[in-house]
């Protein structure tokens, strides 16, 4: 990934984190998706009084990218209001894996430390569309 794209994703994710709707947990998360077009799409967590209805920042950013017409996702940045980088939850790992095992996932906290993985490192043996084909 280009440094320029990574910097722009961080900026977008930090900005989205400011818009988090997190009145229950107080845990604000921003995300940014880099699409194959080079465009960047932000998302934040949106909580709900019916707690399980909550959607994570990563899935909201993916929704924005796909809704805008992106068909391929290159990278997802997640930026949590935490002293350390936070990796995506299991549901978000599955959501990211939909777009292939090589999607890059970059995680940051409030500081400058970054950790980066491929989604297949975060979710090995993911369930995928291949399993839906030729069902026995
Ligand atoms: N959350 C995210 O948005 N992304 C993550 O990677 C971890 C968790 C949100 C969901 C919920 O609103 C809050 O953080 C606490 O779980």
What does this structure look like?
- By secondary structure, this protein is α+β, with helices and mostly antiparallel strands.
- It has a single domain, classed as Cytidine Deaminase, domain 2.
- Helices cover 29% and strands 22% of the residues.
- It contains 4 helices and 5 strands.
- A 5-stranded mixed sheet has the order 2-1-3-4-5.
- Strand 1 and strand 2 (40-44) form a beta hairpin.
- The site of tetrahydrodeoxyuridine has 15 residues, from helix 2.
Give a short overview.
With 136 residues, the protein is of the alpha+beta class.
Question: Mind telling me the C-alpha Rg?
Answer: 15 Å
The overall pLDDT, averaged over residues, is 96
What percentage of residues falls in helices of 4 or more residues? 25-40%
Estimate nothing, just give the exact number of structural domains: 1
Q: Looking at the chains present, what oligomeric state does this protein adopt?
A: single chain
Would you identify the CATH architecture? 3-Layer(aba) Sandwich
Q: CATH superfamily membership, which one?
A: Cytidine Deaminase, domain 2
Structural class: alpha+beta
Indicate the CATH topology.
Answer: Cytidine Deaminase, domain 2
Given as residue ranges, the uncertain stretches (5+ residues, pLDDT < 50) are none
Q: Approximately what portion of the residues adopt beta-strand conformation?
A: 15-25%
Compute the number of helices.
4
Order of helices and strands: HEEHEHEEH
């Amino acid at each position: 990934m280009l440094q320029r794209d990574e910097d722009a994703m961080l900026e977008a994710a930090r900005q989205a984190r400011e818009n988090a709707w997190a009145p229950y947990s107080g845990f604000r998360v921003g995300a940014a998706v880099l699409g194959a077009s080079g465009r960047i799409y932000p998302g934040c967590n949106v909580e709900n009084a019916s707690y399980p209805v909550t959607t994570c920042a990563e899935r909201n950013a993916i929704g924005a990218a796909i809704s805008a017409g992106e068909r391929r996702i290159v990278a997802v940045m997640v930026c949590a209001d935490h002293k350390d980088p936070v990796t995506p939850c299991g549901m978000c790992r599955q959501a990211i894996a939909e777009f292939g095992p090589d999607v890059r996932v970059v995680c940051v906290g409030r500081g400058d430390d970054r950790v980066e993985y491929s989604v297949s490192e975060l979710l090995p043996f993911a369930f995928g569309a291949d399993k839906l084909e030729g069902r026995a």
